[in-house]
Specification:
Layout: E1 8-17, E2 21-27, E3 34-35, E4 38-40, H1 47-59, E5 64-72, E6 83-91, E7 102-109, H2 121-134
Parallel strand pairs: 1-6
Antiparallel strand pairs: 1-2, 1-4, 2-3, 2-7, 5-6
Length: 140
């Protein structure tokens, strides 16, 4: 019988706060560093609901999931294993508080984001900023 090794589905959230700020978390577990809030999709869970759940768990924020942004599937995007992340644009009010897998959660101005981010989150945020500026999404 053949053994299949499939990618693992994940979600990431670009959480917009008033004042053109974005929420990032400082990861508690390796790989360490700043990242978008997100995580693994549970079996039987819709992806948009997984995004809202992960945002709440890691930042304490109740988010409004506004739209699906893009799906990132480069096999090297996560050093732990092959993951596929569906990224959602979200809105929230309040100030984030790190919990669960997040050692810290913080709101950054869009022009003051950390330079070094975990995974492919630098690419994701560059794509998001280009989308906000031009209305154009990343090409496949």
């Amino acid at each position: 019988m053949a053994t299949y090794k499939n990618p693992t589905p994940t979600v990431d959230c670009i959480i917009e706060l008033p004042g053109e700020r974005l929420v990032l978390i400082r990861r508690k577990n390796p790989p360490l560093g700043w990242a978008l809030p997100g995580g693994f999709v549970d079996e039987g869970e819709r992806f948009d609901r997984a995004a809202a759940r992960e945002a709440k768990e890691e930042t304490g924020l109740d988010v409004e999931v506004v739209e699906q942004f893009f799906t990132y599937s480069d096999p090297s995007r996560d050093p732990r294993k092959h993951t596929v992340s569906t990224v959602y644009l979200c809105r929230a009010q309040g100030e984030p508080q790190g919990s669960d897998d997040a050692a810290e959660a913080r709101a950054f101005p869009v022009d003051g984001l950390p330079a070094e981010l975990c995974f492919d989150h630098g690419t994701i945020l560059a794509d998001y900023l280009a989308y906000k500026r031009t209305g154009q999404r990343r090409k496949l």
